[in-house]
TrEMBL record:
GO cellular component: Cul2-RING ubiquitin ligase complex
Organism expressing this protein natively: Caenorhabditis elegans
Name of protein: Protein zyg-11 homolog B
Top-level taxon in the UniProt lineage: Eukaryota
Length: 714
């Protein structure tokens, strides 16, 4: 994305939120057109406030309602602009204002009302495509109204009697004409358009080759489209054209998609058209042909490269149905193409261009499938910009991802979330994570647990959770429906004995409880500690145990240990005594850490703790047996060297002192530099403790000597 495009995006955002309402400015024509379209894409229809800003400060030269509803709200914008290009789009919202007695639309009155004199005099491109019926005689009046018109599209219009002849006679300056999907059955009169270089007449049906003859008087014609949306083997379109026995001397591009084109007809066309350089044979018997004619490029879907060329052509010509079918072919190619052979930049840019050009669901869904397909492969080989663009498009898609009413689309949903995960893991960006996190949580809320647990959405949620900041997470954690959904998912995972899924959910819950008091308060209200104990009992897995203990620490810290009643303490004490006394388990140390924090809290609050002696004995027996190489990131925010030093100075519990010394030892293993002052203070405190009579028969002196000899006295 260029700096210019980024600037236009920002300006559109500021106009939309009202930041520029009181600013004095006047945009140039190019920027006006660009930003105007961006505003429509953001809102689909402009508000009155934005319309006033556009009318007063924009200098529009192009307006299109092709993908947006046309309504009377745009009248002032149109009347104050000097247009060179106008596409009216669907007229149903304004038709009633311009109907004549026969309920036909008086298109001439509509255009004269919408456009000022400058626009009518300078308009070069007019798109009147549609199915609505126009008032009689409109072709003559339009010709007089727009003297500078060079490009005209009347796709889909019904032309009565000799109206096509009248069109040709009244628009002598036309360079480009589109009469696709009309009822034109005779090309007589087209020779009047002596300046015509582009002619599009898709889906027309002629009775014989004689109907074509007047076409060959257009010696300047360079582009001709005689294609059909769908292949009809009974239609002999190209055969009729060739049977005329004539050629167009300057024709360079011929679109024969969906027609009876074959190898023999291609050879005939080459002989009669000396300058023909490209021929499109998509959706024909030559669609996957790898045979290339000398001196001419064949656009089909034989390879991924030719398919992308074909797609670019269809997008440029606004052929929505062909774009959709072409994307389906491309999706198949990507599936069968090795990652090393892919041009990621070209592929993603072509796909996104198609999706941005058309607003239809068919094109959007097929484009998403293409992005998903390529993102399922090795995304590290994607350039960073393309990776970012693909992730942004997928993140927009998953916001409105429908619920899984049946398992028929399960494979697609699995692929979508896997693609998001792949892109996110190789291109972490917290600006995308917020939207993706909310979309993933919304998907959880729309679907049954047994369904969404199969899609991989929780791994995406976990990835976002690890990337986002604590401030971002705290906003999400405070919403109870989010915590409830994770609680339900954890219960389901426990019942199904899903080890990896449980670890994933516990990791998410840990991050959320770490950042939010409200989340902890809610979980305490639903007796979440009992669930954590069940989790540890069910799996007896060291990593899961450490995660559960980390969540318990978060709950205790945020709620100041008030929620931990006698029953919980007794349950935990019994469970710890039975399960955590394995000297080789990391969870043993963190179980001791949790007990130590409970005892420290009890000391600070001067509260009677009936289990003090037993808990202190547990710490004495276990906390120094196995020490991890470093403090897990779950606990670093809570346990610091200064905190531990304060414990040594104030506590009377032998177990607590041993735990504090053991934890200091872990820290000193991984810290290369500590202040001289801290070393001196710590040496003094350890020496003082070791000299006390009540500590003589304990391990305190032994651990203290190890710390001083290995770390403090060097």
């Amino acid at each position: 994305m260029s700096l210019y495009n980024i600037s236009c995006e920002k300006i559109a955002t500021y106009i939309q939120n009202g930041s520029y309402d009181n600013s004095v400015y006047r945009l140039d024509s190019k920027s006006s057109n660009k930003i105007y379209n961006l505003l429509l894409e953001k809102k689909n229809e402009l508000t009155d406030r934005i319309s006033l800003q556009v009318a007063a400060k924009f200098n529009l030269s192009e307006i299109s309602f092709k993908n947006f509803p046309n309504s009377t709200i745009y009248v002032e914008i149109l009347q104050k602009s000097c247009l060179k290009s106008l596409c009216l789009g669907n007229l149903k919202n304004i038709a009633s204002f311009f109907e004549d007695d026969q309920k036909s639309i008086n298109i001439c009155y509509l255009l004269s009302y919408y456009l000022n004199e400058d626009s009518r005099r300078n308009l070069q491109t007019l798109d009147l495509s549609g199915k609505e019926e126009f008032s009689t005689g409109w072709t003559v009046k339009i010709g007089h109204m727009f003297p500078s018109l060079t490009t005209l599209s009347i796709r889909g219009r019904t032309l009565y009697k000799k109206e096509f002849l009248v069109v040709c006679q009244n628009f002598p300056k036309l360079i480009s004409l589109d009469i696709s999907d009309t009822n034109v059955q005779l090309l007589f009169g087209i020779s009047y358009l002596i300046h015509l270089r582009e002619l599009t007449m898709q889906n027309l049906t002629f009775l014989s080759h004689f109907v074509w003859l007047d076409l060959f008087h257009l010696s300047g014609l360079e582009f001709l489209d005689i294609s059909r949306d769908k292949l009809n083997k009974d239609m002999k379109t190209v055969r009729q054209y060739v049977d005329c026995g004539m050629g167009l001397s300057n024709l360079r591009f011929l679109d024969c998609s969906g027609t009876d084109i074959d190898d023999q007809l291609v050879q005939c066309l080459q002989l009669s058209h000396p300058k023909l350089k490209q021929i499109c044979v998509f959706d024909s018997v030559l669609q996957r042909s790898t045979i290339q004619s000398a001196g001419m490029m064949t656009l089909n879907t034989a390879t991924l490269g030719s398919s992308l060329n074909c797609l670019n052509y269809f997008v440029a010509r606004r052929k929505e149905y062909a774009v959709w079918k072409c994307l389906k072919e491309i999706n198949t190619h990507v599936y069968n193409t090795k990652d090393d052979e892919l041009n990621h930049t070209n592929f993603i840019n072509c796909t996104l261009r198609a999706m941005n050009t058309f607003s239809s669901k068919n094109v959007g869904d097929e484009g998403i499938r293409c992005l998903v397909q390529i993102s399922m492969q090795e995304t590290m080989k994607m350039p960073i910009l393309e990776r970012s663009l693909a992730l942004k498009r997928l993140s927009n898609f998953i916001v409105d991802l429908p619920s899984l009413d049946s398992l028929d689309r399960l494979g697609f949903h699995v692929a979508v979330w896997q693609a998001v995960f792949n892109l996110l893991s190789n291109f972490p960006n917290d600006s995308d994570c917020e939207k993706i996190w909310l979309a993933a949580m919304g998907f959880l809320q729309k679907n049954h647990i047994s369904v969404y647990c199969q899609t991989g959405v929780l791994t995406v949620l976990h990835m976002c959770t690890t990337i986002m900041t604590q401030d971002q997470l705290s906003l999400f954690a405070e919403k109870r429906p989010h915590m409830l959904q994770l609680f339900l998912a954890l219960n389901w995972s426990l019942n199904k004995k899903e080890h990896n899924l449980t670890r994933c959910i516990m990791h998410i819950i840990h991050y959320l409880t770490k950042s939010s008091y409200e989340a902890c308060k809610y979980l305490e209200g639903i007796n979440f500690v009992s669930v954590l104990l069940d989790c540890m009992r069910s799996f007896n897995n060291d990593q899961i145990n450490v995660q559960c203990l980390a969540v318990m620490v978060n709950l205790a810290r945020h709620l100041e240990y008030k929620c931990f009643g006698i029953k919980m303490r007794l349950d935990f004490y019994i469970f710890f005594s039975a399960s955590f006394c394995d000297t080789k388990k990391e969870s043993t140390y963190y179980g001791c850490t949790y007990i130590a924090l409970l005892l420290i809290s009890s000391e600070k609050q001067n509260s009677n703790c009936w289990y003090w002696d037993d808990a202190n004995d547990l710490l004495m027996e276990n906390c120094s047996n196995y020490l991890p190489s470093s403090i897990a990131h779950y606990y670093k925010h809570l346990i610091t060297l200064d905190f531990l030093h304060d414990i040594l100075k104030t506590t009377k519990g032998i177990g607590l002192i041993l735990w504090a010394l053991s934890t200091i030892r872990i820290y000193l293993r991984s810290i290369s530099k500590i202040s001289r002052q801290f070393k001196c203070n710590l040496i003094f405190t350890i020496t003082k403790i070791s000299c006390k009579k009540q500590f003589e028969t304990t391990k305190i002196e032994e651990v203290g000597k190890i710390i001083m000899a290995n770390y403090l006295l060097l």
